[in-house]
Design a protein that fits this description.
Pfam families: DUF29. This is DUF29 domain-containing protein. With 115 residues, this protein is mainly alpha-helical. The chain folds into 2 domains: 36 residues; 64 residues. Helix content is 79%, strand content 0%.
């Protein structure tokens, strides 16, 4: 068994035991075009997870923004500069997130409803 074949049989185990080492191996295989060594099932899982994380980040930021906007509206006697800063920061981060991942825009109504 050569080095590549040995690496292929160890990849699923490496994914479970040393995630960072697994990512570095996958990067190397992709850069060098060693397609038969790629851990496709786990790569698919990780890429799907990245997409879910983007959606989750949008929901979280919208939740923080909406919460502070509601506080601003209904607790006017408690308004503070930190609330303004949080509102501005969340708006800024939401705009950046949507600019970096414009395909999230159609998800916005659902994310607002969940937030």
């Amino acid at each position: 068994m050569n080095q590549q074949q040995s690496s292929v049989t160890q990849l699923p185990n490496l994914y479970q035991t040393d995630f960072y080492a697994w990512t570095q191996a996958q990067v190397k295989f992709l850069q060098e075009g060693i397609w038969n060594c790629l851990d496709i099932p786990n790569l698919v899982e990780e890429i799907e997870s990245l997409g879910r994380q983007e959606r989750q980040e949008l929901r979280n930021r919208l939740g923080i923004l909406l919460g502070h906007l509601l506080k601003w509206e209904f607790q006017s006697s408690d308004r503070s500069k930190s609330w303004i800063a949080t509102i501005r920061e969340q708006r800024y981060r939401i705009i950046n997130l949507l600019e970096e991942s414009p395909s999230l825009k159609p998800y916005l109504p659902e994310a607002i409803a969940q937030a």
